[in-house]
Structure of Glycine C-acetyltransferase:
Amino acid sequence: MSSQALEQFLTVNIEDLKTKGLYNVIDTLQGANGPVIQIDGKSLINLSSNNYLGLATDQRLIDASVKAAQTYGAGAGAVRTINGTMDLHIELEDKLAHFKKTEAVIVYQSGFNCNMAAISAVMDQHDAILSDELNHASIIDGCRLSRAKVIRYKHSDMDDLRQKAKEATESGQYHKIMIITDGVFSMDGDIAKLPEIAKIAEEFDLITYVDDAHGSGVLGAGAGTVKYFGLSDRIDFQIGTLSKAIGVVGGYVAGKKQLIEWLKLRSRPFLFSTSLPPAAIAACSTSVDILISDTELIEKLWANSKELKHGLSQLGYDVGQSETPITPCIIGDEVTTQQFSRRLYEEGIYAKAIVFPTVPKGTGRIRNMPTAVHTKEMLDQVISVYEKVGKEMKLI
Ligand SMILES: *Cc1c(COP(=O)(O)O)cnc(C)c1O
């Protein structure tokens, strides 16, 4: 017999999500996550993935995966510290360090896991973390896990950050203080003010931690936001994901040799969770090779996003203040935004509505994620559907 208390908890809370309109129904893809996807037998132009460069379906990555699986097997067989470290893992870490222009890199099973691993490996209850209020969920959880005092500062507000850094330092209460931020904020596509953050960190001798999940493969010729600002030797922790632009799965921390050495000795997801399988590692390696040798995909990504942003603003839509390919189209109230997204779906466009509480009330938006592998015809089609639906709903 199952617990009555559990059953009641689940029933009440699931019902509550349904009444608030927060119950998420997950669509199932029938096939690959490319620029066109199949759902319920219907073909849709896909503007919802993080597969920025289209590498998730790139033949070179697929071939590398198959070859690695045949040579090394389907699984890594153990955690990295026992005997789950293969030459493939080391090769990928060396390649990433070279690409990021840092001394060393440690690879984890996901970007999420990096934040579970790295923050609590260096921060504890005697420390404080200054955290941007819009930081990603995995940063928030990673901070909590460390038991450090979390001090939130207003989004990208450098006066607020400096004030709070000053107070925390002068209080004399903390052994160490860290500033932690997303490199690119995924809802609005704005870039963290890293040059100012680095300056404040230097003024008060703070640790700097940048989670660059949406910047890697996109900014700084693919090497990320820190490289884009030329700050590679002034940021202590650079987190990257292998699951977005890189197109596979996994995450990594790039930094000084001694820091990476410490993470290999002490970070728990590295010590207690099995390492990524050979096929994934080999595909990631090939992906990094592609980024190093050729900027064509990145250029195509930026050209496509420019075209999409331009097309939508020409129609009279508010595309926000994005500085990256992330292209929000701000519709306004929650119900209209959901309805808009549904109409796009019916017209063959897959672009998700993002509403309160993920973004502030009244700023409901469609979040469009163009990629390098969308064709001109696909983008033209998207813009013509936005025109049709917008006029029909009297939004433009
Ligand atoms: C997506 C994302 C992650 C999670 O990365 P995964 O590799 O998908 O686990 C972590 N941090 C930020 C800022 C992200 O945007």
